[in-house]
Amino acid sequence: MEIVDILLFCFISCVIGAVLMLLGQYYVFMRFVETPEETDEKTSTTEKFELPDSVLSSIKNSESESKNPIVAINLVLQFLFYELRHSNRVRKWFYRKLSLELDELLTKSTTGRFFDKLTIRELELGGQFPDIKSLRVNNVELHDDDGHIENLDVMLDLSYRGNFRLAIDADMVLGKKGFLSVRVRHVSGLARLQFTRKPYTHWSLSFIGEPQVDLGIESQFQGRQMQSNINRLKSDGHRQSFSDLLTQGLKRVNSANNLAIPAIVSSLGQGSRSLPPSPQYTPRKQSLVPQTTNPLALAILKLETANLAELSGQQMSSVIDGIVEPFSGTPLDEIMTLAKSSSLQLYTEHEPIKRVEMINEVLAKLRLALDSETTTHADLSMALAELKAAKAARVETGRVSSDTNLLLQTAKGSPSDARKAASAREKEAEAEMARIAFLLGQSEERVQALSVIMLHLCSALQHAQSIAGQ
């Protein structure tokens, strides 16, 4: 019996000791360990609210100007924006819409093949609502039987300087990580706000013609700051070499760790999943790369034997068609998988230093081809944008101006002849838009194929440099 009492006493002592130990640790933690306060740097990230200068000036000016209906509309919208910009409902709406766009980019476009995951890190709605300079009704369509509004088009002259900011984290297919932050400093232009019941009840806002845009862009790749030239590309039309943007980190630190191909390819729009057949191209000398069924090896074969520095215009286009021809009919996801798996075997029969030199020579030729194709893509995009702007301008003039033009044309012919001529010109414009859109799609596919080759070569270069440095 004494043994049982001793064991019971020991058990109770252990339990009491454990409880006392936990209580002592809890007291020390709560008494001496304090959670540090959040710094001002973390709490002051919200953009300060400011009224647009034009709205402030209209308030301080004469009474007649302050009674302008546009001023009243701007003041109401600015007030509602200030009250709602931090509300959960508004922020969830923006997150939901942006997430849908990112999901569509990943699943429905070839650009999404370069990414594994896109995550919204930060969303800042800015410090002010867009300023409406002018407002007018462009078109109203009523229902034939009920008389309700079927379609309403409102033309707006908008100006925005609110510093809307969006930050995105990107996980890429080669295990790399990137970061992109875009701040909208200024946007202005003529826009159309449309409310319609066709095919379902919805609203939309779009610019007519090219708006003036000023963006602040910050990009990082593998934690390294990238020198972004995208601002100049979008604001003043400066055509920076896309291949330079692809390889600037490579040349700066002698490593492929800074390469950010998806950020460049995504700016070129969407394309199909495979490339169309292209004309045959015959190399001029034997390649050091073995001819296999690997389309990347065949493309590098043609790059080796091409003398792109002496070509221009149509000759360069023919050579580029030959370079991307091995990708014809191959899905982009298979090419990406092949680019990751076969890059380590490129030029492995040579010494590491020689291997680096050979890859750099092919990269130099690839940069010339990519520069030429992106210039062609930019020209086609500009031509298509001009045609769309001209078409939108014709729609904006409305039926009144169209009837006036027809009446003026009847001086030289009958109204039916004038209508036929106008219809013929419209069909010609539509055919030209379709032709340019088709060429633009082909150019996008060629740029994406060349970008995959660039990614393949830079991955091989990184591997060769790591071996040469050992």
From TrEMBL:
A Gene Ontology MF term for this entry? lipid binding
Gene Ontology CC terms: membrane; mitochondria-associated endoplasmic reticulum membrane contact site; mitochondrion
This protein's source sits in the domain of life called Eukaryota
Name where it's found: Membrane
Q: What are the entry keywords?
A: Lipid transport, Lipid-binding, Membrane, Transport
Q: By its UniProt entry, which InterPro entries does this protein fall under? A: PDZD8, PDZD8_N, SMP_LBD
Query: GO annotations under biological process?
Result: lipid transport; mitochondrial calcium ion homeostasis; mitochondrion-endoplasmic reticulum membrane tethering
Q: What is this protein called?
A: Uncharacterized protein
